[in-house]
């Protein structure tokens, strides 16, 4: 039986329950019917005996020379009308005047007569000439109250058993119908259960549950199950860690989990999505959703979460390195052009102009390098500024370093600093190109007291004040298309470092980031 499927085990168990229930009900009905039939028989015999004993014709017949002649027809008539098995009228000493079998008349009554002689009406079960019977015996009194005769009315046990058999047959038929209906219902329930459990047994289902729990706790990626009503029904350890969810998050609506609006909207959408980037307070997540359906009905949504925070940081560094490579390529290209110009001037016999041109170009390039190296002594940021300057120059935007800049190695996470400064400069260059010429971006880096300040200003059209709060959300962009992750990544890195960011209006937009310096960098 252990090898049976869960549906088959449930079917067998429910059939046993139905059979036992029906059998118990039938037995109880039998005993109850037996008691009721015996009670009814006692009541009928009592009523008949008392009625006959109280008849004036009976008392009158007892005064005749041969009472049987009058009493026997009367007793038989009443017996047939009342459907009892016998009515015996007897003398006080028990000699029968009447009996269904005429041959028993004149013989002594078989039964208890003492209580009736004492004036009582009593019922008993006794075996007489007709076999076991339920009988009632009562006295016949004259006007003075003296007992003149006794009347006994009875119904045989055989007749009572026949009545009981009829009732038991009816109850048995009802029991069989109930058993059939219960078995059919149990079979249908078993079929439904088998369909939902795919015919698996209890041990297999138990193993599946154990595997399910083990996988949920072992998988590093986050997994959520959201039902059709938008309620979180399952959340594994990875999802709790990635989203910062409490232990009792399951059973709560996704709108009440305190997640970023874009992520909340995705979880509640009930749509299929693939590899969407979403930002929380301190993480970059790749989110995919898949709707689970049964036919045309949606059962809920499976959500997978992957942590791309480290990958995003590495990607940012890779972009910076790519920018440095592009800057070197651009510089090499410009150097080649300038060298060709110098060589051509020499060939044309104008060495003085060649020297002047080469000196001016070298001075301009060296000034920028000297300025960056002298003011920004954090090597990664210095390299980033030189690369971004070359990229901006290629796009026709002047990137200049504020004379007020003065920044040493401040002990902050360089990946976050690259993400903040790189994205602010990229956005500023894009904004400056959409403004009126000349396109210009100014960068200021300095550490004052216990704060590192990064300020990036552009000559673009500026930022609408109503869009400032929205600008740091995922997907926001002024370009009309695109992912819009730049400013949201900046805001995330600033939060991670415990700093602040604000936007003010200038000729364009001015982004100012203030980051608290770690204590070890202040000593």
From TrEMBL:
UniProt KW Kinase keyword: yes
EC code: 2.7.13.3
GO terms under cellular component: plasma membrane
Keyword Nucleotide-binding part of the UniProt annotation: yes
Superkingdom to which the source organism belongs: Bacteria
Gene3D superfamilies with a match to the protein in the record: Histidine kinase-like ATPase, C-terminal domain, PAS domain
Molecular function in Gene Ontology: ATP binding; phosphorelay sensor kinase activity
PROSITE patterns xref list: HIS_KIN (PS50109)
EC supergroup of this enzyme: transferase
UniProt keyword terms in alphabetical order: ATP-binding, Cell membrane, Kinase, Membrane, Nucleotide-binding, Phosphoprotein, Transferase, Transmembrane, Transmembrane helix, Two-component regulatory system
Domain Histidine kinase: start-end pairs: 330-519
Family annotation (CDD domains): PAS
Catalysed reactions listed for this entry: ATP + protein L-histidine = ADP + protein N-phospho-L-histidine
Annotated SUPFAM superfamilies: ATPase domain of HSP90 chaperone/DNA topoisomerase II/histidine kinase, PYP-like sensor domain (PAS domain), Sensory domain-like
Subcellular location: Cell membrane
Protein's name according to its UniProt entry: histidine kinase
Source species: Acrocarpospora macrocephala
């Amino acid at each position: 039986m252990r090898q049976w499927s869960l549906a088959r085990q449930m079917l067998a168990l429910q059939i046993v329950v139905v059979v036992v229930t029906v059998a118990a009900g039938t037995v109880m009905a039998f005993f109850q019917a037996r008691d009721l039939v015996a009670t009814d028989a006692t009541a009928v015999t009592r009523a008949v005996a008392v009625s006959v004993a109280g008849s004036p014709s009976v008392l009158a017949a007892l005064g005749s020379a041969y009472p049987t002649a009058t009493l026997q027809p009367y007793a038989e008539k009443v017996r047939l009308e009342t459907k009892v098995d016998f009515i015996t009228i007897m003398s006080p000493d028990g000699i029968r005047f009447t009996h269904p079998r005429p041959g028993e008349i004149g013989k002594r009554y078989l039964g208890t007569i003492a209580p009736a002689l004492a004036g009582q009406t009593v019922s008993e079960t006794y075996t007489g000439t007709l076999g076991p019977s339920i009988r009632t015996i009562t006295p016949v009194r004259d006007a003075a109250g003296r007992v003149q005769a006794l009347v006994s009315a009875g119904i045989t046990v055989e007749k009572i058993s026949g009545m009981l058999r009829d009732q038991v047959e009816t109850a048995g038929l009802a029991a069989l119908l109930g058993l059939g209906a219960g078995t059919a219902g149990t079979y249908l329930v078993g079929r439904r259960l088998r369909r939902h459990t795919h015919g698996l047994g209890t041990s297999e289902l138990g193993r599946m549950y154990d595997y399910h729990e083990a996988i949920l706790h072992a998988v590093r990626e986050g997994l959520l199950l959201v039902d059709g009503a938008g309620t979180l029904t399952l959340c594994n350890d990875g999802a709790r860690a990635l989203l910062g969810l409490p232990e009792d998050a399951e059973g709560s609506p996704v709108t009440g989990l305190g997640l970023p609006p874009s992520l909340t909207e995705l979880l509640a959408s009930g749509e299929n999505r693939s590899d969407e980037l979403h930002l929380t307070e301190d993480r970059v997540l790749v989110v995919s959703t898949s709707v689970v359906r049964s036919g045309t009905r949606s059962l809920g949504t499976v959500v997978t979460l992957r942590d791309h925070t480290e990958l995003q940081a590495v990607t940012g560094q890779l972009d910076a390195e790519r920018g440095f490579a592009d800057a070197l390529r651009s510089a090499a290209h410009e150097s080649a052009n300038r060298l060709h110009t110098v060589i051509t001037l020499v060939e044309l016999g104008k060495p003085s102009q060649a020297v002047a041109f080469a000196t001016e170009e070298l001075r301009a390039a060296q000034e920028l390098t000297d300025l960056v190296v002298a003011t920004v002594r954090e090597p990664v940021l210095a390299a980033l500024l030189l690369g971004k300057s070359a990229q901006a120059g290629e796009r026709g935007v002047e990137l200049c370093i504020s004379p007020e800049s003065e920044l040493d190695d401040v002990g902050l996470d360089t990946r976050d600093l690259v993400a903040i400064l790189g994205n602010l400069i990229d956005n500023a260059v894009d904004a400056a190109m959409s403004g009126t010429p000349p396109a210009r971006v100014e960068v200021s880096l300095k550490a004052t007291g216990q704060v590192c300040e990064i300020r990036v200003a552009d000559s673009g059209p500026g930022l609408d004040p109503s869009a400032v709060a929205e600008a740091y959300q995922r997907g926001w962009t002024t370009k009309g298309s695109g992912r819009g992750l730049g400013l949201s990544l900046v805001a995330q890195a600033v939060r991670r470092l415990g700093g602040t960011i604000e936007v003010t209006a200038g000729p364009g937009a001015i982004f100012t980031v203030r980051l608290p310096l770690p204590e070890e960098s202040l000593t």
